[in-house]
User: Which sequence fits this backbone?
């Protein structure tokens, strides 16, 4: 891509590695240079928390607002009732309206950390597509909106085609999702003058649908911009770990565990992740990313501190770093480690070390825990665990116990003294 943008926002996203594709670079650049532009990214409320996979586009919205523009976080209160079929092998489970509203309320807590919803004309907006989708009249919608969509073209989109090629069922309910998402762009353009939809590159087809529909119905010139689907340098999908999803809500993943995820970044990814997930200058990101040997570990600590500070605050980042130093350098027990509190009833008759590893989240199952012990990967208070038959009782838990799986995953077991 050799286009040299005039606008601060496009310059930032291209320089920092956010840009995968754009429908019309020059016209969008001119609009961004001429004044404040409104853009949105959509989020379906399928879980109580967003996860690290969402963080790239949340940072994109943050840079958009910092560049003088107005971001919209569009919550899929309506579309979550249908489910996005993009690149999925099966249909999403359907949630109740109450579950969806509760999830949106939880997700709002994360957006509040990154976006300013009280910044005058460029205040971020939180919108919910249930406002217009819940009240649609089906026959009117078919007549006024459905007629603009070609089934032949919809079948050609990779997200649908890959599902059909594998002979996996695609329900009519899911097939309607792309029409509803396109209609979101039209409504946001009509209600808020929204000119730009952004999203991951897997949303390209849905974004193009929205642009075409809005041009046909409202004759508005609008744009689409996508970010790359990130994988780590060793080919894994960004945000996946041995322990499952890296959630952004502190009650689903502790700030220490979040910090540790970034501290464990592969050497080759440090510079790239600094540019995407922090606000350090590009020059500093490149300098840190070029370090090697033991110096790159210092860069990883900076990455972990910067990303954790944005989400959980500077105090949480400093506490996580102090805990990591205590655990790794001094062999101690850090106060910020993930903690499982047991009751007297939990250990009545003894708690096996296998169950303890599972309860602490360090092993997915008893079989996984036994394998971990057999391969010398489990430790108790920093001493190797050699027997899967070890039992823990109240005496053993008079002081907190530190369990470890490998060198990087730790948890504390405590006994509730009041139980």
Assistant:
């Amino acid at each position: 891509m050799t286009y040299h943008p005039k606008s601060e926002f496009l310059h930032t996203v291209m320089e920092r590695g956010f840009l995968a594709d754009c429908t019309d670079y020059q016209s969008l650049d001119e609009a961004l240079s001429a004044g404040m532009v409104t853009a949105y990214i959509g989020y379906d409320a399928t879980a109580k928390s967003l996860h690290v996979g969402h963080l790239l586009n949340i940072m994109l919205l943050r840079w958009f607002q910092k560049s003088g523009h107005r971001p919209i976080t569009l919550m899929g209160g309506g579309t979550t009732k249908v489910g996005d079929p993009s690149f999925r092998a099966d249909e999403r489970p359907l949630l109740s309206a109450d579950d969806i509203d509760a999830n949106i309320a939880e997700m709002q807590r994360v957006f509040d950390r990154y976006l300013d919803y009280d910044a005058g004309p460029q205040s971020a907006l939180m919108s919910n597509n249930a406002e217009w989708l819940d009240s649609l009249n089906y026959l009117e919608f078919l007549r006024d909106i459905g007629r603009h969509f070609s089934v032949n073209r919809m079948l050609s989109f990779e997200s649908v085609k890959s599902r059909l090629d594998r002979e996996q069922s695609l329900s009519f309910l899911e097939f309607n999702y792309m029409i509803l998402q396109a209609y979101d762009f039209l409504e946001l353009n009509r209600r808020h003058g929204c000119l730009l939809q952004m999203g991951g590159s897997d949303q390209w087809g849905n974004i193009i649908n929205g642009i075409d529909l809005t041009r046909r119905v409202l004759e508005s010139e609008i744009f689409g911009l996508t970010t790359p689907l990130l994988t780590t340098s060793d080919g894994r999908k960004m945000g996946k770990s041995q322990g499952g999803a890296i959630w952004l809500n502190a009650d689903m993943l502790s700030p220490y565990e979040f910090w540790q995820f970034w501290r464990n970044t592969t050497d080759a990814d440090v510079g790239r992740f600094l540019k995407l997930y922090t606000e350090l200058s590009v020059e500093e990101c490149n300098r840190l990313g070029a370090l090697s040997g033991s110096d790159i570990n210092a860069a990883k600590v900076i990455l972990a501190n910067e990303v954790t500070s944005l989400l959980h605050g500077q105090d949480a980042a400093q506490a996580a770093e102090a805990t990591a130093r205590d655990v790794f350098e001094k062999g101690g027990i850090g106060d910020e480690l993930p903690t499982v509190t047991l009751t007297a009833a939990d250990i009545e008759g003894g708690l096996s070390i296998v169950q303890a590893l599972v309860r602490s989240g360090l092993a997915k199952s008893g079989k996984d825990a036994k394998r971990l012990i057999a391969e010398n990967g489990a430790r108790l208070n920093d001493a190797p665990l050699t027997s899967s038959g070890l039992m823990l009782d109240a005496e053993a838990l008079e002081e907190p116990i530190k369990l470890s799986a490998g060198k990087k995953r730790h948890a504390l077991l405590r006994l509730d003294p009041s139980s």
Notes: Residues 254-328 form a domain with the Tyrosyl-Transfer RNA Synthetase fold (CATH 1.10.240.10).
